[in-house]
Amino acid sequence: MKRILTVVFPFVLLISSCTWFKTTPEVGIILADHFKNKIYKNFDTAAYNQVFRKTLDSLKPKLSNPNTLGKFYESEDMNTTLVTRFFVDGQLDTLAAYVGNSKLHGYKPSLFGYTRLTDLLEELRGNQFKNIEEAYPVIAELELFSASALLKYDTFVGFGSINPRKVLNRYYVTTTRPDSVYLSGLLKVENLEKHLQQIQPRSANYLALQRSLGDLEKSSNPNSELIKTTLVNMERLRWKIPGIGNEYVEVNIPDYSLTWYKDNDTLSYMKVCVGSRRELAYEEKIKAYNRTGKLDDKPKNHQTPILLSKFNSIQVNPIWNIPVSIAQNEIYYNAARDPYYLSNNNMRVYYKGKLVADPDTIQWSKYSRERLPFQFKQGSGSGNALGKFKFIFENGSSIYLHDTNNKSAFNRSVRAVSHGCVRVEKPLEFAENLLKSKAEYDQLRMEVNLPPLDTTKMKVYQKILQKKADTVNAFQLKPKWFGTRKGISIFLNYRTAWVQNGKMVYRNDVYGLDDALYNAMKKYR
């Protein structure tokens, strides 16, 4: 028995070490069949994996998302995921073609490793390897450059090259960015060509901007400013912004306009006034203020923020809770100069939450602007700076849309004049669109001394007017709240180029955000 074992055991070792029992991996079978070349049947997974790891380590500085790639291929046992599925049927050539045309999106192809990707495709296609060992480095590098190009191209074209919250001042909109889970899943895409087609931006504005970019760049005397404006607005359209919905109100800050959209139709359009631009050299001045703490050193920043929210209510005959900054920089000086300024403007003063009975007697010189202990509110009425309507939505910047008691600013071409909130030109029309029913709209109209549209309610309207005119029982005007229709988004946006009636429209970069965005993305040109 021992003699039999001593003979059989070496024989088993010999058999197990022989290539007769090795299984050629799928990539080897596919390439052998495609090229009619037997060397690929000698594809040894263990030997290739060693080459792949060394190639990955050496290429990390040149690859996009190297850590994601490393973890993905480690979990896939170094399988040639992309080469196996997409080399023979030409889909890797399709990837290279899309990358080569990335200039249509304003990107340089070298950003995605275009030259090396096409060289590797050509080298593998040439099929000039003397043995399988010569093919390993080419296959490994092609796999990695294809994966890197796919991840970066998908991100830059499908999501944008810039995360706006990291670059733009007062940008509070959440944008969807690809995470490692998404990117790893992308490497398992079933149809690469179809996916590349699907991620191409298709909006009318984006396509118009693309055509404009091509025309501008082909010009014998290209306009660099228009090219820059076109590029940054293409980038804005690549950002994925969840939660806008099918019906929403867009305030375009540089256009000083408000447009109400529903299912791609325009329901309403009107002028708006937005916040004024922050002071020049703001960054340097804010550093000085942080050192001194003096209000005289604090630069003004009244820019309307970029944000997305949903309307929840309308306040009719609103009370204006005056912000601390306005109290310190404006109310303080006006009250100090004119002892009747507060009462003449229907402003109430509060000290530690309690109403000051006679604010006109306050000795303002006793109080420091920096530590002003008072709070200010302007009561309802015709003199209120918010006018008759305040349109409210949740946000962390205390921003809202509102009417105004001074309509003259709507006649200006440049309407960046407010402290940050947005004044609307046609507040009554806007309120009507926001409300749930005609009955509520009639109630709102009567609250601001307008007759109801429903003539059967005229008696109710007359009683309201009589109550307000009663001199015996002095009527005190108070705010009235109305709920809005649900799900209507408000998008305070910033666009300086778009297509309108088949022609490109450009607007001035009122806040300098185009410059900030272009400075962050110009390295990709």
From TrEMBL:
Pathway noted in the entry: Cell wall biogenesis; peptidoglycan biosynthesis
Q: Which Gene3D superfamilies match?
A: L,D-transpeptidase catalytic domain-like
PROSITE patterns on file:
LD_TPASE, PROKAR_LIPOPROTEIN
Q: Which InterPro entries match?
A: LD-transpeptidase_YkuD-like, LD_TPept_cat_dom, LD_TPept_scaffold_dom, Transpep_catalytic_dom
The entry sums up its family as follows: Belongs to the YkuD family.
- PANTHER family with a match to the protein in the record: BLR7131 PROTEIN, L,D-TRANSPEPTIDASE HI_1667-RELATED
Molecular functions per Gene Ontology: carboxypeptidase activity; transferase activity
Keywords attached to this Swiss-Prot or TrEMBL record, sorted alphabetically, are: Cell shape, Cell wall biogenesis/degradation, Peptidoglycan synthesis, Signal, Transferase
Q: Where is the active site?
A: H402 (proton donor/acceptor), C421 (nucleophile)
Signal peptide residue numbers: 1-21
Can you say what this protein is called? L,D-TPase catalytic domain-containing protein
Domain L,D-TPase catalytic positions: 247-449
- GO terms (BP aspect): cell wall organization; peptidoglycan biosynthetic process; regulation of cell shape
Top-level taxon of the source organism: Bacteria
